[in-house]
Amino acid sequence: MIKLDSKIPKGPIEDKWTSHKFNMKLVNPANKRKYDIIVVGTGLAGASAAASLSELGYNVTVLTYHDSPRRAHSIAAQGGINAAKNYPNDGDSIRRLFYDTLKGGDYRAREGNVYRLAEVSNSIIDQCVAQGVPFAREYGGHLDNRSFGGALVSRTFYSRSITGQQLLLGAYSALSRQVGLGKIKMFTRREMLGLTVIDGQARGVVARNLVTGEIESYAAHAVCLATGGYSRVFFLSTNAMNCNTTAIWRAHRKGALFANPCFTQIHPTCLPLHGEQQSKLTLMSESLRNDGRVWVPLKPGDKRKPGDIPEAERDYILERKYPTYGNLAPRDISSRAAKEACDAGKGAGDTGQAVYLDFADAIKRLGKKVIAERYGNLFEMYELITAENPWEVPMRIYPAPHYTMGGLWVDYNLMSNVPGLYVLGEANYSDHGANRLGASALMQGLADGYFVIPYTIGDYLAGTKFQTVKTDHPEFQKEKDAVAEMTKKLLSIKGKRTTDDIHRQLGRIMWNKVGMARNEQGLKEAIQEIRDLREEFWKNVNVPGSAEDLNQALERAGRVADFLELGELMAVDALDRKESCGGHFREEFQYEDGEAKRDDENYTYVAAWEFAESGNWNLHKEHLEFEYLKPTVRSYK
Amino acid sequence: MGWFFRALNSSIGKKFVMAVTGICLLLFLIIHLINNLTLYGGPEIFDTVVKNLESIKPLVRVIELVLVLIFVLHIFNGVRLWIENKKARPVGYKVNGSSENSDLFSRTMFVTGSIIFIFLVVHLRTFWVSFNLGHPLAAEHKYYQIVAEAFSDPLYSILYVAAMILLGFHLNHGFQSAFQTFGWNNKKYFPIIEKLGLIYTLVMVIGFASIPIYFLFFYGGNL
Amino acid sequence: MSGNMNLTLKIWRQANANAVGGFVTFNVKNISPDSSFLEMLDILNEELEAKGEDPVAFEHDCREGICGACSLVINGRPHGPLARITTCQLHMRHFKDGDTIWIEPWRAKAFPIIKDLIVDRTSFEKIIQAGGFISVDTGGVPDANAILISKDAIEKATDAAACIGCGACVAACKNASAMLFVSAKVSQFAVLPQGQPERYQRVQAMVKKMDEMGFGSCTNTYACEAECPKGISVRNIAQLNRDYFNAKLKSENVEA
Q1: Nearest to C241 among B93, B176, B182 (CB)
Q2: Is 0.90 surpassed by the pTM of this model?
Q3: Does residue C103 form part of some domain?
Q4: How confident is the model over A56-102, as pLDDT tens digits?
Q5: Strand, helix or coil for residue C103
Q6: Which residue of C has its CA nearest to A182?
Q7: What is the ipTM of this complex?
Q8: Measured on CA atoms in the order C187, C190, C194, C198, is the torsion positive or negative?
Q9: Residue B24 is assigned to a structural domain of this protein
């Protein structure tokens, strides 16, 4: 029987992390090099963790399926990173960032974790500046801040619209430095396909060399997964084409619990769909909502050009519904408002699947120059993709799957229920509850990597007895055989449908029934449909090529096979959670004005799912305690 | 001194050598042109100028030696860079789109340089050898006449003019390229350097090329 | 809603690093002008997969022009005919129905082909590992606002730091030179106060590694800048040159 222990330290919330750091065991500096740690993934969390652990003296091995760590999808984050520096003197504090994040997550995250996140946020900014990350500056040379959704203070540090890139390149340079010094062994073009558990401890991974096809084993004392989120389960999402759930899913199949899989975030400011040939959706920074006003025609079916619709016949949906936060309402709320308007027939443009994001007022108020300075490259990007000029015609935006708050369950130390298996960044479920605020993903990834894991992993290593394990251990062979078996099977089906075709169908099921608004009937249908689709996949998919060389079709097929299991679990979890909170909106549970109705009495828990067999899970609940912030109705009015 | 040669042998070092020798040659060309322009002053002035140079022969020899060294370095490094750069892309593109992303002058430095080298050899044979190594007219200090005779051959003059145009191609890129290599590329000043380069090139090409044209068309009758 | 463009593709195919490659002709039909270039290749690949044939291997990931994974020399131009975008940001509306499009991999000794259109850009990694960083361990750094940086300096640094490491500069350069890539990193740190302590050591280490990896040298054709999807300026190369000379003249390290 699994007992979920969050391991939140005792004591006042301000002191928890400090006293925990003191109470944790330390590894003797001379002994650190005797410990091997594997880090899978090289995004913000993975790269920062690998670099920091190596700097401490651990023997670090890094795996990534990319050709370079710098390709990880953290690079695409545009807007910024939050920190409680309070440089603008507008009333920010660690406590306020903690409060905003917890409230933003609709009280479905742990207080202790969230407080720690807010606490280390300031160190992240210091660290990044020291690395040469070019954050925007004021004329006096000090750091500049901008506002983001879900906050009434200006606490977001940014670098034009390429903050994610700059932060990742910072972490990447730290990682590269360690590789150059010979302290990190870096393996690129390796995809983790299996976790090796020996005596109940995570002791290594099995990965496919994507160039030669060889299945390789890597042994260690601890494994850190920093492999990102699973929005690609929707097929169309803002995630990169290679983003997948495989690493965490294979770990889940080996015993790691999957927590809150149904908590997915639909981002409000994405470019609308152009047609059937679309392969992914493009996000535009949420920072656009600082100056853009979201509106739809007041009358359903109004097909006039936006410029021809007079002010009186426009509905500024966010400003009307949420006067306090206006266009800066949190992501889940903004997305749902857009969907509601489109469902009511008020959608913008030919497809009717979009709302306007209008800068006309801001341009009038601030001038073209200021707007160009703030959003110039976003405007260019918009025009490049849509062939419409946003200086003249309001942008059209529509929500798209973007971030997954759910992920592998971890305790305060970021360790999953499998000893020695750590999960960092978006891959874990820890800090964002049911909804993540803008500019908080970068913060969490780097907090986990730079400032949490270097402390907590030492405590585990120093306090654990290890038997000597090398890659010739029979468990590795077993895992390799299982991977080879699956590969062989995928290649031998030779059916009639392509992987993408099945993935697209899965995406449609997920978007329609496990997307922005869910209901019991839809979820039950989704579960059945996904099961049927999974069966069809294993009977009728066509994966060409061989296992012995670079085979992108095979890579995709393996990932979709895992999505076909995860999709079902997301529906199962959404069905279990009979309340609306954050990104999870159950149509049965809403107030009369359409706001989400949380059920704190029955659902103040983390749903952690244990894999029994494909299509069968056991639910474990970790109850959330709120000592400092009593859950209230999350209002942004 | 190991560090010094390693530095000059690095990719940037080789460019540096190209740029330094190139600038020296640019300066040399100015002096050469000034000398040549005395031809317009008539036989007496030109012959006197050359005769005066004869009187400081040892110094001229040293300068010539330095010049040879500069030329050799420029050519040796140029050829070496060309070979190495070819090796950096063993398989080329089927479709060449370079005309869309760079100018002709910059892409043809090796070709223009090679042709200029051939010209240089012919040029030295025609003039330097004649002036220095016992041409009967040189003994009488009738240098002007040697020039006039050489340019009375239309083929030679045409080739000379063509070579000057190619030299222009080479100089036009080389001038600003040297500044870029030295790292003197600045938003404010580089456009000025580019314009200076163009002016320099035009002055050189027109100046040098005007002489055979002058001799061929306007002076021809007075020989 | 599919489109109405029909195209002929001439694509470089090569089974692996050691195999002999060649161009193969494909026809794609009903392409929407709103589709991206890579979506057009997706359609081709899905057709190939449906027939049980090997899809064309090409690298791509974020599809929004920032990860630097996508490459492709399209009709002789790295990242296609438009300036300042990556291949994934190129839309089919910039081609005409009936066009023949030549698609080739990056060509450079330092970027050997792995398969079809995929090349190995590890040489870039090695250059960064040699010195493309500021040596600072996690923790123990001053408050972020303790380091003042002028707006001008930060703009310059950000311009240079925008490099996505795609390798188009190398692909475009007639000498397959990596100077623009290297100079972008060198310049970013050269204009920031944090980068000063290692400034001269960094530039020497990175140039040394660059030369070892088999890239050509810069002959100032500026094709790199013209093809760079992020418009990285060749002024960075001037900065690199300057720093390199200064390093050689000023630093007392005779081993470098």
Answers
A1: B182
A2: yes
A3: yes
A4: 999 999 999 999 999 999 999 988 999 999 999 999 999 999 999 99
A5: strand
A6: C129
A7: 0.98
A8: positive
A9: yes
